[in-house]
C-alpha cells in the first residue's frame, strides 16, 4: 500500500462571504499541496454550497477556474486552469488575501485570508474546519441582495410569501445554525 506524502505546510484560511451581515464565515486548515480545484471543493463543503454553479478564483489580478468553452458563453474569458495550480505556488505567506466567486448569477463573493502557515500535525486529517459562523444561504436565493428578503419572508408569518418561501427552503431554515461535525464528517468521507 503506497504511503501518502505528508504536506510541507498547512494553511489556515478564513473564508468570509461578502455582503452579508452579520458575517458568515468558515475557518479551515488545508494542505499546501492542494490545487485551487481542490480548494474549490473544500469551500463547497465548508460553506454548504451544492457545487451546481460556475466559480472562479481571483488572485493578484489573475482568474483561475475550470477552463470553459463557448458552450457556456464565456469562451472569451481568460481563465487559468485551477487544477494545475498548487496553493503553495500562489500563497506567499500569512495575511495574503484572494477571492472566490461562486454562482456567476447570484454572485456569492468569498474573501479568503491566509491567517496562519502551520507545520502539519501528524495526527490530523486534512482538510478540517475548525470554526464556523452562521448557516450558508440557500442556493439560488438571489445572492447577497436576495438573501435578506428570503430571511424576512420565512421569519414573518404574516409575510405574503411566508408559506411559499418556507416550502422552498424545505420547511425550515435557521440562519444561525452551522454544524461543524457534519462538515468535518463530509471531509472525512471524501469531498469529491
TrEMBL record:
Residues 10-181 form the Plasmid pRiA4b Orf3-like domain. InterPro entries: MM3350-like_sf, Plasmid_pRiA4b_Orf3-like. Gene3D superfamilies: MM3350-like. Signal peptide: none annotated. It comes from the Bacteria. This is Plasmid pRiA4b ORF-3 family protein. It comes from Laspinema palackyanum D2a.
Amino acid at each position: 500500500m503506497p504511503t501518502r506524502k505528508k504536506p510541507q505546510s498547512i494553511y489556515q484560511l478564513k473564508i468570509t462571504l461578502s455582503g452579508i451581515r452579520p458575517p458568515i464565515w468558515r475557518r479551515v486548515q488545508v494542505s499546501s499541496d492542494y490545487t485551487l480545484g481542490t480548494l474549490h471543493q473544500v469551500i463547497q463543503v465548508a460553506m454548504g454550497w451544492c457545487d451546481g454553479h460556475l466559480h472562479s478564483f481571483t488572485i493578484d489580478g489573475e482568474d483561475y477556474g475550470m477552463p470553459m468553452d463557448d458552450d457556456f458563453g464565456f469562451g472569451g474569458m481568460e481563465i487559468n486552469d485551477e487544477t494545475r495550480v498548487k496553493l503553495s505556488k500562489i500563497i506567499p505567506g500569512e495575511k495574503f488575501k484572494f477571492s472566490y466567486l461562486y454562482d456567476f448569477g447570484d454572485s456569492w463573493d468569498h474573501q479568503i485570508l491566509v491567517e496562519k502557515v502551520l507545520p502539519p500535525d501528524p495526527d490530523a486529517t486534512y482538510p478540517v474546519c475548525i470554526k464556523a459562523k452562521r448557516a450558508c444561504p440557500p442556493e439560488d436565493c438571489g445572492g447577497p441582495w436576495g438573501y435578506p428578503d428570503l430571511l424576512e419572508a420565512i421569519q414573518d408569518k404574516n409575510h405574503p410569501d411566508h408559506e411559499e418561501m418556507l416550502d422552498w427552503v424545505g420547511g425550515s431554515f435557521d440562519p444561525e445554525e452551522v454544524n461543524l461535525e457534519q462538515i468535518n464528517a463530509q471531509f472525512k468521507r471524501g469531498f469529491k
